[in-house]
Amino acid sequence: MDELPPAYLLSLPLHAITEVYGEEGLRRRFALEIGRLPDADRARLERAFRLAERLHRDDRRVREPVLNHLLRVTLRILCHYRVRDAEVLAAALLHDAVEDHPAELAGGAPADPTAAALGVLGRDFGPRVAELVGAVTNPEYEDDRDHDEQYREHVVASLAATPWARLIKFSDFTDNGVGILYTTGPKVRRAAVKYGPLVPLLRGLIDLPDTPLDGEVRRHVHRQFHLADSRFAAILVPHPG
Length: 241
Fold this sequence. Notes:
single chain; mainly alpha; 14 helices
């Protein structure tokens, strides 16, 4: 990696970096990108990354560490959505922290681990970071109702009220949806069933006037969602047994 020209790494698609250079490549791309930011913003993001690294150190997706996903979600917002807001980027790095590791983040055994974990993020990174992470953190679902339906209801209600959190969800969804071609096994169909019906709802959120993206980026996100939607539809096409 050390011999790789920075300009070349900066030119590569995020999933290409993942496939060819793995976690080390994504880490280096992240370091190069935040190196362009003011010192205070870079320091905030380095702290957020260290926390994400500690919390998710043993977490894996189907083919890779969860940390790869967190880095891609953050880099997509920075590079493709053209957002340099350090609080939004820190929240992107930590967007799964409260949902996946509330007790570890909060410390001890609080009565409400989610609230306590968000409190820690608010203390260490500021209330806006905690608000954004809270907006993309799934609640406990009712057992007597379809969980996917409750998930979609939560996403729409939460993101309608929190414009900047939409960017985190758009990037997260893109990584899971467009990136489904990097997934194998039963999770492929499960993802199509869960996320396919969410596409038109997220498209509506893209077009809200207060979504903090310019027209060119909105069109880019729409194209990504169209691609994800076409892949979900192809996965769910019935085929002869």
